Design the sequence.
């Protein structure tokens, strides 16, 4: 009986520690405290903002979401106001339209920055997020201070893929 009581007490303590850690973990891409929707350009864009400082827009790749940057957000939010959005028809951003283009998504990001009253920001884009970052800089050059992209096509069309 003595060992059983010790087991129950140690198990209860372990559960409490696990619950404490679970409560501190942010569920990026589904954060009820910071997540918001912006109804713009014919759809509801889901976005989250973390940290303070100069604005930094981080753009996910095709089929992704804000959650793709769960390991990067904690670092960047210490130095920047990190802005992340689920691109049109991806993650929690619902779009019932029948067309989708990189240009539309770049303009959506510009619309988000406008709605947030952000005149310019740093931009990080990965894969299709890199394409969207490049197009944001081309179509709305005053919005992009500096741009870092990886995995983006130089020409986001059929010429980017070998037949």
Sequence:
């Amino acid at each position: 009986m003595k060992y059983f009581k010790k087991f129950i007490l140690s198990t209860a303590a372990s559960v409490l520690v696990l619950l404490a850690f679970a409560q501190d973990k942010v569920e990026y891409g589904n954060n009820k405290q910071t997540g918001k929707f912006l109804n713009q350009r014919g759809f509801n864009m889901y976005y989250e903002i973390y940290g303070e400082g100069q604005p930094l827009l981080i753009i996910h790749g095709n089929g992704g979401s804000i959650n793709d940057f769960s390991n990067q957000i904690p670092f960047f939010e210490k130095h920047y106001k990190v802005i992340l959005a689920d691109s049109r028809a991806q993650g929690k951003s619902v779009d019932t339209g029948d067309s989708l283009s990189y240009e539309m998504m770049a303009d959506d990001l510009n619309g988000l920055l406008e709605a947030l009253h952000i005149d310019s920001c740093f931009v990080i884009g990965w894969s299709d997020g890199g394409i969207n970052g490049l197009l944001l800089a081309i179509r709305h050059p005053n919005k992009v201070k500096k741009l870092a992209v990886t995995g983006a096509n130089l020409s986001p069309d059929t010429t980017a893929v070998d037949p």
About this structure: Residues 27-156 form a domain with the Rossmann fold fold (CATH 3.40.50.1820). The chain has one domain: 27-156. The first helix runs from residue 2 to 24. The first strand starts at residue 36 and ends at 40.
